[in-house]
Structure formats: structure tokens, C-alpha cells
């Protein structure tokens, strides 16, 4: 498949939903959904058959050919994420692609060379520019917001993707984990790497009583589940009752800010807003490296345009960085 036939639709679901914009889905596209966006990767043939309402690109961005490939490179490298350079998105894209290959083998066959190239080139960009960025992941920022190495008991709510990301960074002596589905907690712990196994870890019973008891005892609480209008008032009451006095913090990563929620006015609460604020404060030196990573994505997309035929690369050693000057002067 020619690169010219690659099409990517990018919808920022959070802002579109707030603006009341519906997000049409193309049949047979490979869809990558994150908490911020929905990206559909497809071919021109599928797109042309699709029932995309006129003007729907107003609900997002439409990329074609080399621009589509460049966008996917930035996305997979974490350069389009709220925390630029974060790694979770790469795993999400790989998983979505695996699912798509199983569900739509015929369309996947068309896209495969470009997706394989994408995964390979993302690894190259990550290892060259992003591994050296230093830590600005949800986990590392969480640890910093909790004041380094948390003392006493830390309660972690959730066992989904975000909780799994944060878990290795919670190097507190006594960790308690509460999740609605204990099976998922067991899976998260089984997959956990990087957390010192000598720390005490307790999985709580999935009852409201067990959760609230932990709220009263914990020094710090890290929330990796969405806001819940039903349960949150009881959580807030338990925190106010005793835990707040211990001087720890609540870090709620399921909400952008507390305004209008049960968490409004809760002492020692931080949300994604504070976490992103901390990220911004340390952003300057990262910016230079990220700019280089973005230029690398652009360069690789330009090379892809030259290698066009089917997505296979002309050879990784053929194109050095010095070649980019040539593309720029060619106006490619
Ligand atoms: N993933 C990210 O990169 C990211 C970044 C920023 C913010 N967030 C936010 O963090 C939260 C979790 O995201 P995630 O990516 O970890 O999602 P996920 O993988 O789907 O996991 C969702 C987690 O939330 C729990 N949960 C969902 N609804 C619940 C409810 N009504 N009551 C109690 N528990 C509930 C789930 O419990 P079960 O296992 O029992 O279903 C699971 O532990 C979301 O609010 C998301 O918007 C995620």
C-alpha cells in the first residue's frame, strides 16, 4: 500500500465531548482509544467507503500520507501525550494493532508494512531521544508529589492501566491496594516489575468497609479510578475524619480538578492539574530534547515518503541525520 493511501483521523474525545461534538467511527479502521483521544488509522479505500459526515474533520484532525505517518510517529513516541514522552501510549498502540489484526485481517494486511515500520521507528526515536529525558511519567510525578519516598501507609485505589503505571513508583513501606475487582489487582501485582518485593503489600477486600478503614489509616492516598459521585462523599468523610491529620496527601489522578466534585475543598488534595503543573515546571530542559524527537519524527516521515512503495525501509543505515538537510532543501 502506498503511503499516499494512509489516513489518520485524530479526535480529542475529552474536548469534543465537552463541546457536544459526536465522534463518528469509521467501520474497519484500527482504533486507538486513550483517555484523551481517539485515533482511527485506515486506508484511503476504507475511508472513501466510510460514512463520515461532511465537516466531521472539524471534530478532529485528518492527516494524509506522510503527515499521517508523522502524526502516528509522534503519537506512538508519546509526543502527542499530555505528558510528552510517556511510554504507555506505545503499549496501547501495539495492543490495538494486535486486536485489529485479529478482527480485520484483510484491512490489516494493507496497513501492516506501515505499522511495522511505525513500531520499529518509534523504538528508534524513543531510544535516541526520549529514554534520556529523565522522569516525567505519571509514576515519577506521583512519587514527587507525594514527597519522594512516602512514609507510613499508602492506599492505592484502582488496578487498571494507570494504577499499574504508578505502582512501581510507590516505594512506601506499607502499601494497601483497593480495587472493585480483586482479580484485576492480582493481575496487576503479577505483572508488576520494579517494585521492591520486600515492601509490605496488602490487597483489601472489595467492600466499602475495608476501603473506608484504609482511608482512615493511610497517610497518603493515590486514586487511579474515575470520580464516583456515589462513593466519593464517604471517602472524603473518612479522610477528613482522621487521615488528613497525619499530614499526607491525596493524589487524585482520575480528575483534572476538584471543582464541582465531592473533592472540592478537601485538604491536602492534588489532582491531575497539580501533576501537570509539576510537569510544566520541569519542562524546560525536556523541551529541547522533545523538539529533537519531533524533528526526528518529521525526518522519518519524509524518509517514508521517499521509500514509499510498500512501507518497507530502504535500509536503516541508508539515511543518516545529515540526509535531512537534503530533504529540507528538496522541500520534501
Ligand atoms: N491511563 C492513563 O494514562 C490515564 C492518564 C490520566 C488519567 N487517567 C484516569 O485515571 C482513571 C483510570 O484510568 P485507567 O487508564 O487506569 O483505566 P482502566 O485501565 O480502564 O482502569 C479503570 C480502573 O478504575 C476502576 N473503576 C472504574 N469505574 C469504577 C467505579 N465506578 N468504581 C470503582 N472503581 C472503578 C476499575 O476497576 P475494575 O478493575 O474493578 O473495573 C479500574 O481499576 C480514569 O479516570 C482515567 O481517565 C488515566
Provide structural commentary:
- The chain has 332 residues and is α/β, with parallel strands linked by helices.
- It has 2 domains: 3-133 and 284-330, Beta Polymerase, domain 2 (2-Layer Sandwich); 138-281, NAD(P)-binding Rossmann-like Domain (Rossmann fold, 3-Layer(aba) Sandwich), CATH 3.40.50.
- 46% of the residues lie in helices and 13% in strands.
- It contains 13 helices and 10 strands.
- It has helices spanning 13-18, 44-49, 65-76, 88-103, 105-130, 138-145, 161-166, 182-191, 208-217, 232-241, 272-281, 283-306, 322-330; strands at residues 6-11, 30-33, 38-43, 61-64, 153-157, 174-178, 200-203, 220-223, 250-252, 269-271.
- The strands form 2 sheets. It has a 6-stranded parallel β-sheet with strand order 7-6-5-8-9-10, sandwiched between helices. It has a 4-stranded antiparallel β-sheet with strand order 2-3-1-4.
- Helix 6 (138-145) packs across helix 11.
- The longest helix is centred in the middle third of the chain and has 26 residues, at 105-130.
- Residues 53-57 and 315-332 have low confidence and may be disordered.
- The structure holds NADP nicotinamide-adenine-dinucleotide phosphate.
- NADP nicotinamide-adenine-dinucleotide phosphate (NAP) binds next to helix 7.
Kindly report the CATH topology of the largest domain: Beta Polymerase, domain 2
Count of runs of 4 or more consecutive helical residues: 13
Mean pLDDT: 84
Helix-strand string:
EHEEHEHHHHEHEHEHEHEEHHH
| Gross morphology | elongated
Distance between the termini: 20 Å
Which structural category fits the helices and strands? alpha/beta
Share of helix among residues? Answer: 40-55%
Bound molecules: NADP nicotinamide-adenine-dinucleotide phosphate
The overall strand count is: 10
- As for the number of domains, it is 2
Amino acid at each position: 500500500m502506498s503511503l499516499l493511501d494512509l489516513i489518520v483521523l485524530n479526535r480529542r474525545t475529552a474536548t469534543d465531548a465537552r463541546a457536544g461534538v459526536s465522534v463518528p467511527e469509521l467501520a474497519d479502521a484500527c482504533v486507538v482509544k486513550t483517555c484523551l483521544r481517539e485515533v482511527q488509522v485506515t486506508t484511503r479505500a476504507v475511508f472513501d467507503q466510510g460514512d463520515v459526515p461532511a465537516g466531521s474533520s472539524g471534530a478532529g484532525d485528518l492527516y494524509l500520507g506522510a503527515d499521517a505517518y508523522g502524526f502516528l510517529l509522534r503519537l506512538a513516541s508519546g509526543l502527542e501525550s499530555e505528558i510528552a514522552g510517556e511510554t504507555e501510549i506505545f503499549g496501547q498502540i501495539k495492543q490495538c494493532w494486535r486486536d485489529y489484526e485479529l478482527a480485520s485481517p484483510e484491512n490489516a494486511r494493507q496497513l501492516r508494512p506501515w505499522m511495522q515500520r511505525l513500531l520499529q521507528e518509534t523504538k528508534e526515536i524513543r531510544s535516541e531521544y526520549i529514554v534520556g529525558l529523565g522522569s516525567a511519567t505519571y509514576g515519577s510525578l506521583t512519587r514527587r508529589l507525594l514527597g519522594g519516598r512516602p512514609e507510613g501507609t499508602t492506599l492505592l485505589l484502582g488496578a487498571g492501566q494507570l494504577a499499574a503505571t504508578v505502582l512501581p513508583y510507590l516505594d512506601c513501606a506499607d502499601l494497601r491496594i483497593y480495587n472493585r475487582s480483586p482479580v484485576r489487582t492480582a493481575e496487576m501485582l503479577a505483572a508488576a516489575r520494579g517494585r521492591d518485593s520486600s515492601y509490605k503489600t496488602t490487597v483489601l477486600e472489595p467492600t466499602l468497609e475495608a476501603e473506608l478503614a484504609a482511608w482512615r489509616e493511610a497517610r497518603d492516598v493515590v486514586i487511579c479510578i474515575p470520580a464516583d459521585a456515589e462513593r466519593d462523599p464517604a471517602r472524603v468523610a473518612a479522610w477528613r475524619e482522621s487521615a488528613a491529620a497525619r499530614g499526607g496527601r491525596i493524589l487524585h489522578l482520575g480528575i483534572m480538578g476538584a471543582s464541582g466534585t465531592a473533592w472540592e475543598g478537601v485538604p491536602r488534595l492534588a489532582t491531575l492539574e497539580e501533576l501537570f503543573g509539576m510537569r510544566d515546571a520541569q519542562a524546560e530542559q525536556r523541551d529541547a530534547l522533545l523538539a529533537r524527537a519531533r524533528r526526528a519524527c518529521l525526518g522519518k516521515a519524509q524518509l517514508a515518503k521517499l521509500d514509499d512503495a510498500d512501507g518497507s525501509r530502504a535500509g536503516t543505515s541508508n539515511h543518516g541525520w545529515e540526509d535531512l538537510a537534503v530533504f529540507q532543501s528538496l522541500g520534501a
